[in-house]
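Continuing the series of single-chain predictions for the mutant panel. This is the parent chain; the variants come on the following pages.
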Amino acid sequence: MRKLFCLSLLVPALLLALSASAAEPAAGAKGSIKGKVVGADGKPAAGVPVRLMHKGDRKAETKPDAEARKQRKAKGAAPAEKNNSVAETTADASGEFAFSGVAPGKYVVAARMKGVGGGREQVTVTGDGTANATIKLKAQAAKGKGKGKAAKPAA
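Parent structure:
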């Protein structure tokens, strides 16, 4: 009789525990991000490198950091590690890309190609879901000497 009473308490407790764990995603659930890179004209951009970064990793450079960078450059030292990517991939021939096994959280997906331009989009990955991103590349401003100056005509 005592065993039957214990069993009658144990079965509902087990059923309750199983139903609660089935309703919640697994603690280690990982999601994914799928997207497309398009040029300024809206056409797919093939072969563009795409980086996935935690939101907030790209912080504004403070003046002391800029000074330290200048000193390293003057001494000929290698630049400090800049790559804070979680993952990297390349857009396929259709401009599409994907990241799988991404932990839940807020991310920035950035695409950039020299001579073409760059773009970024913020996404949020929840549980085992899929976040979508469309990155439209924008032309980059010219850098270097002569920026903003008109070219001199040949004599």
